[in-house]
């Protein structure tokens, strides 16, 4: 009998509410499979920060490392200075656990209303780099608060870091029917970083000769995401462009209430982390209004990553069927959606 | 009698084609007004670069400075290494002439089909910072082409630079009926730059107490641009976020064929520059297929900037009427659209 040790970081705002339904889906999907789940709750986020001043201690991190995977709800609260929890907790986890593949699938499920009038078939995945770029925290400011303040932010890109994520993206593209990879960057302006990305994609392409490659500047990519999203199969891009594009991708496929993500350490030197793309949504927190579907779909990515593709498929099918039959109307509460999905997963 | 000395940089690809129609619109709008236009053509772009290796010399720049305004078509060609013309010419003009307000209005004209199913009323303007941020060219790489390459890009933000563009954006917001300003940044990750922007907006707000301010992370802003663009009135943002958001804004309002922009030096220490948001579109260059509307609308911004609001209004009305009557179908050639617009401007 296999036991999955799952670290649970419910986090802030609607995090707790959606994670509860994610765990229900997980348990239900594994019921009778011989695989069990042991969860450890980590009290991290705004409450802990206010109580202790801590965001993520070395002890927390060591304890999380002893798990097979992490399920995360959402991080961030208006009561905490902007950036403290995001950088001190969420990004610290991604960086410390070397989550260099931030995987964000975008699919327009039948039954979902897209804000696009004529969306066509949307089914692509964004491979967002997770450990470099402008997210490294390599910035600083001088003369803060004076008329002579200078605030810099440095985007750091390494051959090592770009190559490994590009290779992962190629492998994903090669495994998909259309076998198409789009690099998104802005190499006409960010020439140093951009040319590293470009050269790397060209070089790795030799290992995946059946994958077709194209390139878009990030500004043009946003245009195609609303005029012809069907053109995308796999997108590979840097940390910041990936952040922006995946929110837009979520929007055109029915909203961040449906968008799942996986922060993957493909080398498995540390647990990978699964989380909805949406944030903590303080405006609707505690009201049972949050849609747990994105978290449930993140659980499907978790099952996939842990080598349980059948259970993963069952979870994803439950979501697809639920949406197809009932649409994404906001009449059901968080718990009701969770219960409906669990019932479908149970079959 | 007033004469406007206009520097014309048609540039690459469809640049020549659209600029020709822009000039026709300009001449027509000023016909009989007593204001004349003297143009100087500047041979800048891919052809010049291939012939001489030059992008923009000090002599070119000095000659351009002696003008009242610049009309620019498009810069960039696949035959030139990426970044050379963009940075050596287009961005050099913006930086050297201190175009710190990159103004990009977004309006959904009646008759235009938006890719959004239910766009609502779209009428906002993006004030994009034009002389700082990740566009400063302050990057570099070491060990290029080796497995140990590191490529950095630095975003530079100064109190001086942020404050002047924020003040301009507030003034524009104060002059509009809704009086609403949205700051777009990513201050939960880019904390140093982000907090400078945030503090500056808070401080300048005191000078414009009747302007309502809100804030969106750039990723969330892309969501609202497709789910509720009517929420925006004036957006102020950094150079790179502005680049991305304005292409998306163009897409939802009918495409970059319609999106105008102005690179403004509000202190008038150098000529301002007017250009369509679209690029040189090498795929359709020379075929008479390019829509000159964005350039004609940029001419309206030029007239406005030169203190000729009546002529500006006539040009904008011609575009609005043309679109309302004929839609944005691509049946007409570049020259036909230009002729139709000129006829309407002539009244
Ligand atoms: C909360 C924030 C730091 C985070 C990011 O920017 O990566 C979020 O927007 C995301 O996309 O997961
Ligand atoms: C061509 C390119 C350098 C330019 C930019 O990034 O500013 C363009 O995309 C724009 O928006 O005017």
UniProtKB/TrEMBL annotation, chains A, B:
GO MF, one example: NAD binding
A Pfam entry, by short name: Iso_dh
Alphabetized UniProt keyword annotations: Amino-acid biosynthesis, Branched-chain amino acid biosynthesis, Cytoplasm, Leucine biosynthesis, Magnesium, Manganese, Metal-binding, NAD, Oxidoreductase
Quaternary structure, from the entry: Homodimer.
UniProt-annotated location(s): Cytoplasm
SMART domains given in the database record: Iso_dh
InterPro entries reported in the protein's UniProt record: ICDH/IPMDH, IsoCit/isopropylmalate_DH_CS, IsoPropMal-DH-like_dom, LeuB_actb
The protein, known as: 3-isopropylmalate dehydrogenase
Role summary: Catalyzes the oxidation of 3-carboxy-2-hydroxy-4-methylpentanoate (3-isopropylmalate) to 3-carboxy-4-methyl-2-oxopentanoate. The product decarboxylates to 4-methyl-2 oxopentanoate.
Main location: cytoplasm
Homology family: Belongs to the isocitrate and isopropylmalate dehydrogenases family. LeuB type 2 subfamily.
Cofactor binding remark: Binds 1 Mg(2+) or Mn(2+) ion per subunit.
Enzyme class: oxidoreductase
SUPFAM superfamilies: Isocitrate/Isopropylmalate dehydrogenase-like (SSF53659)
Entry binding sites for NAD(+): 279-291
Gene of this entry: leuB
NCBIfam families reported in the protein's UniProt record: PRK03437.1
GO biological process per UniProt: L-leucine biosynthetic process
Residues covered by the Isopropylmalate dehydrogenase-like domain: 5-341
Reactions performed catalytically: (2R,3S)-3-isopropylmalate + NAD(+) = 4-methyl-2-oxopentanoate + CO2 + NADH
UniProt entry tagged with the keyword Transferase: no
Pathway given in the UniProt record: Amino-acid biosynthesis; L-leucine biosynthesis; L-leucine from 3-methyl-2-oxobutanoate: step 3/4
Cofactor field: Mg(2+); Mn(2+)
Site, Important for catalysis: residue positions: 135, 186
Protein's organism: Cellulomonas terrae
Annotated PROSITE patterns: IDH_IMDH (PS00470)
Assigned GO CC terms: cytoplasm
EC number: 1.1.1.85
């Amino acid at each position: 009998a296999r036991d999955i040790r799952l670290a649970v970081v419910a986090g802030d705002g609607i995090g707790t509410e959606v994670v509860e339904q994610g765990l229900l889906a997980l348990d239900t999907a594994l019921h009778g499979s011989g695989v069990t789940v042991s969860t450890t709750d980590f009290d991290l986020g705004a409450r802990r920060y206010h109580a202790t001043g801590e965001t993520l201690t070395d002890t927390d991190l060591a304890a999380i490392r002893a798990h097979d995977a992490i399920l995360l709800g959402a991080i961030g609260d208006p009561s905490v200075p902007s950036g403290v929890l995001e950088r001190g907790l969420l990004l610290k986890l991604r960086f410390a656990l070397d989550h260099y593949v931030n995987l964000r699938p975008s699919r327009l499920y039948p039954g979902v209303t897209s804000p696009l009038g004529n969306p066509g078939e949307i089914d692509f995945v964004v491979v967002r780099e997770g450990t470099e770029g402008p997210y490294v925290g390599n910035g600083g400011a001088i003369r803060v608060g004076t008329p002579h303040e200078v605030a810099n932010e440095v985007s750091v890109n390494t051959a090592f870091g770009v190559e490994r994520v590009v290779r992962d993206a190629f492998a994903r593209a090669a495994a998909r029917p259309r076998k198409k990879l789009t690099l998104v960057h802005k190499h006409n302006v960010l020439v140093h970083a951009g040319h590293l990305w470009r050269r790397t994609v060209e070089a790795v392409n030799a290992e995946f000769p059946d994958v077709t490659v194209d390139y878009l500047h990030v500004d043009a990519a946003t245009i195609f995401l609303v005029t012809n999203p069907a053109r995308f199969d796999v997108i590979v891009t840097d940390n910041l462009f990936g952040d922006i594009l995946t929110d837009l991708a979520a929007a055109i496929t029915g909203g961040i209430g449906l968008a799942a993500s996986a922060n993957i350490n493909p080398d498995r030197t540390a647990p990978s982390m699964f989380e909805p793309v949406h944030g903590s949504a303080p405006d609707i927190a505690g009201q049972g209004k949050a849609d747990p579907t994105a978290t449930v779909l993140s659980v499907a990515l978790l099952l996939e990553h842990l080598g349980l593709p059948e259970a993963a498929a069952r979870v994803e099918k439950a979501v697809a069927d639920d949406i197809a039959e009932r649409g994404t109307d906001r009449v059901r509460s968080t718990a009701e959606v969770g219960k409906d999905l669990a019932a479908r997963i149970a079959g």
